[in-house]
Design goal:
Strand order of the largest sheet: 1-2
Radius of gyration: 31 Å
Strand content: 5-15%
Distance between the termini: 88 Å
Number of helices: 5
Helix content: 10-25%
Number of strands: 6
Structural class: mainly alpha
Largest sheet: 2 strands, antiparallel
């Protein structure tokens, strides 16, 4: 029993050590102080790692205990840890991965490589499908009209990296605009004059007449 308690305590300590933030590591990446520990951790308590933090842990180096090791930036720079279409280097201002520890921080806009919602604006025509783009050239976020909820047919990409639904059987906006009574106001559509058999009101009148006729037949019998 006592040994089990010791093992549980040791495991808890090991987990806490692995999960805790290492503030000195922000200096191992360019512009690391911009977001501090939030580059690698999802909250200020360091209760869990972001995808960037997970990748950074795989790039720890040094002949010292793991909690004292530093991040090797060179291989980490080329990854797109948060899968937003931008490499870690591009987001931290080192697109060519030339920065080394001790160099001045690169100038320019800096984004969090651990947050997929924080990234540079997309560059239409770059040949990469970046966050915020529906398509770019031959690259598409969805494969066809059906996956886009636009019926059947192929999609094409417009010059502004937006989807072209021209060949879809049900492009956005093509369905009739139904009113509160289930009819459409468009000429030639499925609506009918109030009280006519084609409209919902007319259908109710027909049903009511049939019910009344059946009741009268029962009385006559």
């Amino acid at each position: 029993m006592r040994s089990s308690v010791l093992l549980v305590g040791l495991a808890s300590f090991t987990f806490a050590t692995a999960a805790s933030a290492r503030p000195f590591r922000v200096n191992d990446i360019p512009n690391g102080t911009k977001y501090g520990c939030l580059n690698c951790h999802g909250d200020t308590k360091a209760s869990y790692n972001t995808d960037f933090g997970g990748d950074a842990r795989l790039q720890l180096v040094g002949d010292v205990p793991v909690q004292e090791q530093n991040v090797n930036w060179a291989p980490l720079c080329e990854f797109d840890s948060d899968q937003d279409g931008w490499t870690n280097g591009q987001e931290l201002g080192d697109p060519d991965c030339l920065w080394t520890k001790g160099d001045p921080d690169p100038k320019g806009f800096v984004y969090n490589p651990g947050n997929p919602d924080n990234h540079p604006p997309p560059v239409c025509g770059s040949g990469k499908l970046e966050a915020g783009e529906a398509c770019d050239g031959e690259l598409f976020l969805v494969s066809d009209c059906a996956e886009a909820g636009a019926g059947e047919g192929p999609l094409t990409c417009m010059a502004d990296c937006k989807l072209d639904y021209a060949q879809c059987s049900q492009p956005p906006g093509s369905m009739p605009d139904l009113g509160v009574d289930g009819t459409t106001d468009e000429a030639g559509g499925c609506s009918a004059a109030p009280g006519s058999p084609r409209g919902l009101g007319g259908m109710g009148a027909v049903i009511g007449a049939l019910v009344f006729a059946a009741a009268m037949r029962r009385k006559r019998r």
